[in-house]
Fold each of these.
Amino acid sequence: MSASEYINVDAAEATEQEMTDDKIVQAALGEAEGSDLETRDEEEEEEEPDFQPPSLCEARQAMTVLLRFFETNNNTTVEEMDKILSVEKLLKEKTRKTCAKRK
C-alpha cells in the first residue's frame, strides 16, 4: 500500500451522519440537542446568589487569622511580616474612618 492509498483509504466512506431537513431546521431554530445545554447553563447562572462584599468585621476577623498564621509559621521572613502588618495598619485606618463617619 502506498502512502497516498493509506491517507485516502477512507475517502469514499461517510464519516458523518447526514442531517435530515428536519434536523437542519431544528438546529437553525436552536432546538437541537446543544441548545438544551445552553438552557441549563443559563438556569445555573440565575441560581447563583448575589455577591456580597465582606463586612469590615469579617475583614478584621480574616486579618486576625492571617496574623496568627504568619506569626506561627517558622518560615515567615521579616519582610513578609512587615507586609502583613502594613495590611493590618490599612485595615485599622479603614476601621477608624468608618467609625468616625458614624459619630
Note: The two ends are 91 Å apart (CA to CA).
Amino acid sequence: MSDAKLPERPSNLAALLGVGVTNYNVRGWWWLVGGNPTQTTGRFRDCFPGGRFAQRWHQFTVDSRNAAAATNKAQILGWIEDYGDDDDFVRVRVKGEFPRSSIFRST
C-alpha cells in the first residue's frame, strides 16, 4: 500500500455525484457501480435494499426528473403520460428504480 497522503475532502467528482463517503480518511479502494436497474435479480440488484449484499453498499438513486440540464424533460413527461407514473418503463428509465416485474422490456 502506498504511503501517499489522502486528500482532506472528496474529489470534485464525488461531490458532483453526491456520493456520501463516510470513512473517507480510511486507506483503501472505493468502488462506484452505476447503471439502470433493469433486472429484478443479479449482482447489481443484490447491492440494493432487499438484496444479498445490500449491507455492504451505500446506495443512491438518481431520478431523471430531478437531474439538472442533462435530461430531456419534455421526453420524460411524454413517457410518464404514455406509460403512467408507476409503469416499469418509467420506474427504470425515469425514476432509477428497479422494475416490479421480472419480465421488463425497455422499449
Note: The helical segments are 12-17, 43-46, 73-83, 88-93.
Amino acid sequence: MLIGLFAIMKYFFVYMLRCVDGSYYTGHTDNIEKRISEHQHGMYCCYTHQRLPVTVVFLQTFTSRNAAFAAERQIKGWSRSKKEALIKKEWNKIFFLAQRGTKQIS
C-alpha cells in the first residue's frame, strides 16, 4: 500500500532559469515540464519572454505549494552572488553571504 501513497503524492517545484542576457528568473510550479516548455516557447508575456532562450540552472522539489512559494520568494530576494552560489551548491558561500547582510550588534 505504500506504493499507492507515492502515486497520489503531488510535488511542487522551485526553478531558476538563466536567460540569454545572463539574468536569472525564479518561479514555482506543480508541472515542471510544462512550465519550462512554456518559458522556452515564450508562451507568456513575462520576464523571460524577451530573454530567450532560457536554461534551467536550479530545481528543487517540495511537497507543498506553500513551501515552494516561500522558497521562490526567498530566492527572488537574494543577490546575484547568492543565487550563483545556490546554483553551484556552494553552501558555505551562501552562509557567508547571508551573514554579510546581517548587522552585528556590539
Note: The first strand starts at residue 12 and ends at 19.
